[in-house]
Design brief:
By secondary structure, the protein is α+β, with helices and mostly antiparallel strands. The protein is 50% helix and 12% strand. The strands form five sheets. It has a six-stranded mixed β-sheet, with no helix packed on it. A six-stranded mixed β-sheet has the order 13-14-15-16-17-18. The longest helix has 32 residues, at 464-495. It is globular and about 100 Å long. The N and C termini lie far apart (91 Å).
């Protein structure tokens, strides 16, 4: 205003409106500021210690304010299942079970600290609560472990088993896998038999029914341990699945009379009825849709995935579409969403109903009933359980007029699962599904807060269908990107592999799943009791054929990237960064992104840990040398189950088979019982000579084998490794090699020559082993197990002759000798 001085204009501006003063430069030139200008010093004239101290105070103030804001928004509750799961993981990773009384004492101490801190010391109180949740997770893990008490078979055995069929599942090769509840064993009688086994029967035209009793000669083996130290321990999951052994029948088993075991309880009869219903539904679907299409459709309903051929399974996995097969959040969300929207639209056709009743809550109740029925016939798989709990909580939120999609609902579902099955916190299925859901919900929350700006052109009626289709595919694109990035970390950690073309595969396949397969599948299930499900299943099958074709096309592009094992510290640091990024809402969340970026950059730039030079399977039958991403094994056809894990974990692109010696037969020395006998002096000399000649004539870093007797190879470090299949050659191998491996259960624990010895007995206790030759030329040995004092690995220390548990896992573990 003309005639007014700057000072008077400044007084006219409200003092509280700091943004207005900052936005108007002329207002800064008031008299007070003019007096201060001569006394002000430039930034460059301030001493560095003073500037650092001031910056530290500013950062501390910002951190405190941001942390206070996070607490005010209830972020501590969102992190509560993280602390609960961390406690469970810590308990499972311990070398031995901690005393229960010690854990209870920690509960009391931490609870008293939290109460004493009160509201006046929020940092102390929240820290005590976090510690209390960790201890609660440990107690939950301890309770689950002790309540399972699964008996795991200690050693492979061939015996006659009698058991009741609890579950059955066909596979792509026409075989049937049965889960049997064992009532007895014969010839020999196992002193410590498992309660439940998984066995495969071949050559059956018709499967046995649920509840029938079977008797047959079977080969049983304990669940496999880690293929390499640090990889997935299948014995751990088998323990919590209550499966004590795996195996197969010799020939077809026969139906036997049920033993006198008493009348089944109501819960057992109910479980048998559900399993029979589940099997019947699967048979019905496969009868309508033949081949992989029917097996794929049945897996979406009953979770029976073994009937899908290996070719199709590999194609789905390589294309990043394997998540469709498992009954997980996608299937549950689509089924519940379709039922919810469909029922609500149906009720909206009756105005009197919509005016008199809360149709949204009625639709939510109907969707919850349908979801429960889906879960009941899905076989109670872990992924289905997790998805059911999460969707049930979201539907229940509708009853209380709460947001269905929220981070709190995810936290509640995580609480339920971690309290019921804390062992799942270590599994890739739990981690990947919650990571994807958490990322999607957090992304949705950020997207919903954006300033929505609709262009007038988008409101034109002719344009709306195009906008709807564009937004649908944009949603799939965004969801696939978020889900892919959020689960990539866990895929690398557990499977050591990434799918490069998962995004385009999902863009092509998900519309078919969402608009054809799942709606028609649900419609078919509703019509099944009336026998009118053939046409809907045919339509759904057509959609699944398109999905399979997409998977095979994308898998043909290649693109799977083997990452290999990452440093041990990387995974927990990256997971912590991901949780901070997804669960916080202030700028503190960017600390998580910085942590992930810095950890990844350090892994890429820092020199990687040296790869092992030799790797040994836990049964001693498979050995390989590692030579610049090439695995040279002692088998012409190594077992895929172990060898594929080795290739992914070590990022080995090629396999090098052994060289076989032609025209020479091994010397067989057997007694009357068929047991191996020691060689005579001449035979021993000849065996030594043959081994030395094989090493001299062989190619470096490649095995030379005499089939049925031995394999030997010279490493570029100068070490010679020999595997012995025929124990008669054991002495000769010890005399000529530096490392000897044999699957035989020998009583010897060392070679007289000083060679490093691995036998079937020592490997049974230590698990798979890695050997690395260090700079000093000393072999450094790492084994899968350093202790056997946990319930899921204690069977390895069982001595069936004495009926006791004894021995340590290995004398080699991390000893370097």
């Amino acid at each position: 205003m003309p005639g007014l001085k700057p000072f008077e204009v400044t007084k006219a501006v409200p003092a509280a409106d700091a943004s207005a003063r900052a936005a108007e430069p002329s207002l800064l030139l008031n008299r007070s500021a003019a007096k201060l200008l001569p006394a002000m010093r430039t930034q460059s004239s301030i001493a560095w210690p003073t500037r650092i101290k001031a910056a530290t105070r500013d950062w501390a103030s910002w951190l405190q304010g941001s942390a206070t804001a996070e607490m005010a928004h209830g972020r501590l509750f969102l992190f509560s299942p993280v602390f609960l799961g961390a406690g469970a993981v810590l308990w499972f990773e311990l070398a031995s079970d901690p005393p229960t009384m010690r854990l209870m004492a920690w509960v009391v101490v931490l609870a008293l600290v939290a109460i004493a801190a009160g509201q006046g010391r929020p940092f102390v109180r929240n820290s005590a609560l976090a510690g209390l949740l960790c201890v609660a997770g440990m107690l939950s893990a301890q309770y689950e472990t002790r309540s399972r008490a699964t008996v795991i078979l200690d050693t492979p055995v061939t015996t006659t088993i009698t058991g009741r069929v609890e579950r059955r599942e066909g596979d792509g090769a026409g075989r049937w896998r049965y889960i049997l509840s064992i009532s007895g064993t014969q010839s020999p009688q196992i002193r410590r038999p498992p309660d439940r086994v998984s066995v495969v029967a071949r050559g059956q035209k018709e499967p046995f029914e649920i509840g029938e009793w079977l008797t047959g000669r079977a080969r049983l083996t304990p669940p496999a341990g880690p293929a390499l130290p640090g990889l997935n321990d299948f014995a751990f999951s088998a323990y919590f699945d209550e499966i004590g052994a795996n195996g197969f029948f010799y020939g077809s088993p026969s139906v036997s009379m049920p033993p006198a075991v008493g009348t089944p309880s109501i819960s057992e009869r109910g479980a048998n009825w559900l399993d029979a219903l589940r099997s019947g539904i699967g048979d019905r679907i496969r009868g309508i849709l033949p081949g992989d299409t029917g097996a794929f459709a049945a897996s979406l309903v009953t979770d029976e995935r073994r009937a899908i051929s290996r070719e199709t399974t590999d194609a789905l996995r390589q294309a990043g579409l394997a998540h469709i097969v498992a009954i997980s959040g996608l299937n549950m969300a689509l089924s519940a969403g379709i039922f919810f929207v469909g029922l609500r639209q149906l009720l909206s056709l009756f105005p009197s109903v919509t005016q008199a009743y809360p149709t949204k809550k009625i639709a939510a109740a109907g969707a919850l009933v349908a979801l429960t029925a889906y879960y009941m016939i899905s076989g109670f798989a872990v992924s289905a359980e997790r998805a059911f709990i999460m969707m049930a909580i979201m539907l229940a939120a509708v009853f209380f007029d709460r947001p269905s999609i929220s981070l709190r609902n995810i936290a509640l579902s995580a609480w339920v699962i971690l309290l019921l099955s804390p062992s799942e916190a270590l599994g890739p299925s739990f981690q990947m599904s919650f990571a994807a859901t958490l990322a999607l919900v957090a992304g949705y929350a950020m997207w919903s807060k954006r300033a929505a700006r609709e262009h007038p052109l988008l409101q034109v009626r002719a344009v709306k269908p195009v906008v709807f289709v564009a937004r649908f595919f944009a949603g799939i694109l965004l969801s696939s990107m978020i889900g892919g990035f959020s689960t990539a970390l866990f895929a690398v950690e557990h499977f050591h592999r990434l799918s490069a073309y998962g995004l385009p595969a999902n863009l092509m396949a998900m519309p078919v799943i969402s608009f054809v397969v799942m709606p028609m599948g649900m419609f078919a299930m509703l019509l099944t009791p009336f026998g009118l499900d053939v046409v809907p299943w045919k339509i759904a099958g057509f959609g699944l054929e398109i999905v399979i074709a997409i998977a095979k096309m994308v898998s043909g592009w290649g693109g799977n990237v083997d990452i290999g094992r990452l440093p041990v510290w990387y995974f927990p640091v990256a997971v912590a960064g991901f949780l901070v990024l997804a669960l916080l809402r202030t700028r503190l969340r960017y600390i998580g992104a910085v942590a992930i970026a810095l950890a990844t950059l350090l892994v890429v730039l820092a020199p990687s840990s040296p790869a092992p030079d030799f790797i040994i399977a836990e049964d001693g039958g498979l050995v390989a040398m590692v030579d610049n991403q090439v695995l040279a094994s002692n088998r012409t056809r190594p077992p895929d189950f172990i060898f594929d894990q080795w290739r992914r974990a070590l990022a080995a692109e090629q396999a090098r088979p052994p060289l076989l010696i032609e025209g020479v037969k091994p010397v067989r020395r057997r007694d009357g019982d068929g047991k191996s006998q020691r060689f005579s002096a001449d035979e021993l000399y000849n065996a030594r000579t043959a081994l030395r000649q094989a090493v001299a004539r062989g190619v470096e870093n490649r095995f030379v084998c005499l089939k049925g007797a031995w394999c030997t190879a010279a490493h570029d470090s100068g070490y010679v490794l020999t595997t012995v299949e025929d124990p008669s050659y054991f002495g000769a191998a010890c005399d000529t090699a530096d490392i000897v491996v044999t699957p035989a259960r020998l009583h010897a624990i060392e070679c007289r020559s000083g060679a490093l010895l691995f036998t079937g007995e020592t490997l049974r206790r230590s698990g798979a082993a890695e050997i690395r030759i260090d700079e000093q030329g000393t072999p450094v040995v790492t084994t899968a197990y350093t202790t056997l004092d946990r319930p899921w690995m204690r069977h390895r220390a069982y001595n069936w002759r004495s009926g006791t548990f004894d021995g340590e896992p290995s004398a080699f573990s991390d000893s370097g000798e």
